[in-house]
Amino acid sequence: MSQRPEGLFVGLCTFDVVQLVDHLPGPDEKVTARRQTVAAGGPAANAAAAFAHLGGAATLLTSIGSHPLGVAAAADLEGLGVTVRDLSADSTEPPSVSSILVTASSGDRAVASTNAVGRRIALPADLTALVAGYDVVEFDGHHMDLALAVARAARDAGCRTVLDGGSWKAGTEQLLPSIDVAVCADSFRPPGTTGPEEVLRFLRDHHVPWRAVSRGGRPLVWEGPHGGGTVDVPAVRVVDTLGAGDVLHGTLAHRLSLQTELTEPAFAGALRAATEWASRACTSFGTRDWMK
Can you give the residue ranges of the Carbohydrate kinase PfkB domain (predicted)? Predict the structure, then answer.
């Protein structure tokens, strides 16, 4: 393992426009936002930023393009210490734009985005060399063809692989056998599952040795090869939940990159530290203020 942990983050990068509002507008209604912020977004991008914030060397493998909004998103990440490898660098199409409304009283967010829909990217020719040397490789499930190829190469190279299961996506069942650690949101619902216990069983049946389900402010539930348990989530005053799951995964990846061998206590400890960072992120507006 390198002295400075190295993480590769594979998945979505968006250009986020975030508005803090008193209430979500109704039909044909306009509201004036209290605050706004713009930043690069997407689960993999935000996780890479969190990994870099904790001192890791983070690389994002994604599709952005050369449109001015894409240039701004890449510059934002590079300013946070993230190395961006853009597999659509020659594309002049705008990047995926996420429009996000955060309700001031609750911190709940409403998001509209095209995500990775319609974006076609070519697999890197140097895939085997690309993954070599990383301590951890994290996937958010977007750009699934890319994720499948990188995950298999990472597994062959002996890199620890982590899945951010934000939601079930077509092809996820093919990705799971190449995943060492899967931490899924409560909204992650594989076919035929209705709750955390069934999701954990599904992951186990698909050969994921370390698995967990986060449930917002409720305790996170986890399982390893020989046991399991729960991790309490710190109680905080919630300002904005946007990106909290991404912070959890980026900081978890950082902790996992420091573990040569995973044990149940080490996994639970890594999850506990990650939930503390994610809770901290919920106490400020946007996806960057928690770093200050």
Answer: 9-288
Query: Is 1 part of any domain?
Result: no
Residue 192's domain is classified under what CATH number?
3.40.1190.20
Quick: pLDDT tens for 88-119.
999 999 999 999 999 999 999 999 999 988 78
Q: Which two tokens stand for residue 285?
A: 């507006």
Domain that holds residue 80: 6-13+41-95+120-291
**241 in a structural domain:** yes
CB 245 within 8 A of CB 212: no
Q: Does any domain span residue 172?
A: yes
Indicate whether this model's pTM tops 0.85. yes
- For the chain, strand residue ranges (E) read 6-10, 14-21, 35-41, 57-62, 82-86, 96-103, 109-113, 136-139, 160-165, 181-185, 210-215, 218-223, 228-231
Tally the residues of the chain: 292
Give the model confidence (pLDDT) of 207-264 as tens digits. 999 999 999 999 999 999 999 999 999 999 999 999 999 999 999 999 999 998 999 9
